[in-house]
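Friendly challenge for the regulars: who can give me the structure tokens for this chain first? No prize, just bragging rights.
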Amino acid sequence: MQTLTREEHAALVAQLEADEARIRAAVGAADTPPASPKQPEAQDQVDLADDEVMQRQDDAMLDHYRTELADIEAARARLKAGRYGICTECQLAIPYSRLQAYPTARRCMACQRRYEQLFARD
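First reply, four minutes later:
Bragging rights claimed.
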């Protein structure tokens, strides 16, 4: 089983930290309510529908960010347990190139494909 070098490990930890900082900054910006106009404007059905669509998009984005933060936390737990970079399914090393592209990866590509085929949404 090929393990990560010290340099690869440090680079991935730094990438996790940078990703978390980026996400937290985006979440902070998304949680900030927009400045309201001084005089409320009358809104028609189209305006109300647009507002609802924007709110749903914001909610979906916040859910996505929460999932990413949970994935980062899970990756940190694997780091602490000495299991980071090890596939949770087959117990083989996850290639560094996969971890560079997706530092919170829990599975190697073969196991991830199998997982997605088993749990694909119809």
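The mean pLDDT is 87. The two ends are 36 Å apart (CA to CA). Your move, everyone else.
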